[in-house]
Amino acid sequence: MELTLLAVMPGLLIWLAILLLPWRPWSTRESLDSESTETLNLSNVTVLIPARDEVETIAQTLTALKEQGEGLNVVLIDDQSTDSTAEKARTVNLNNLQIVSGTSLPEGWSGKLWALEQGRQLVKTSYLLLLDADIVLKPGLIPTLIKKAQRDDIKMLSLMAHLKMESSWEKGLMPAFIFFFKLLYPFHLSNKPSSSIAAAAGGCIMLESNVLEKLGGFNCIKDALIDDCSLAKQVKQDGNKIWMGLTHSAVSIRPYNSLSTIWQMVTRTAYTQLAYSPLLLLVCTLLMIIAFALPIAALLQTQVDLIMIGIVILGIQAVCYLPTLRYYSMNPLYSLSLPFVGTLYLLMTWSSAFHYYFGKGAVWKDRHYN
Question: pTM for the complete prediction?
Answer without folding.
Answer: 0.92
